[in-house]
Amino acid sequence: MRIYGHVQGVFFRDSARDEALRLGLSGHVRNLPDGTVELEAEGPQGSLEGLVSWCRHGPPAAAVERAEVEWGEPTARWADFTISG
Q: What are the extents of the domains in the chain?
């Protein structure tokens, strides 16, 4: 998923990790040089849908313009939910 808007410098990644862990998801979130946030997550469909819904709003200081979601097959790449960039 890629999240657009005012999403860097507003604790988006930390908040997204907290929400993903609350939902029992594994994955990764990072800032990209173009000002967007990239998030990949795996877990139960309902939990993933919950995270997508959360990302469309983000934390209080964020101003999300849109979130582009691409669904795929699970890869089991992550044991936890990590942050970088």
A: 2-72
User: Could you tell me which residues come within 8 angstroms of residue 32 by beta carbon, excluding any fewer than 6 positions away?
Assistant: 2, 38, 85
Beta-strand relationship, 63-68 and 26-31: unpaired
DSSP code of residue 78: -
Whether 13 is catalytic is yes
- Which CATH number applies to 2-72? 3.30.70.100
Active-site option among 2, 30, 31, 56: 31
Task: Kindly give the residue spans of alpha helices, DSSP state H, lying in 1-85.
Answer: 12-22, 45-55
Average pLDDT over residues 5-27: 98
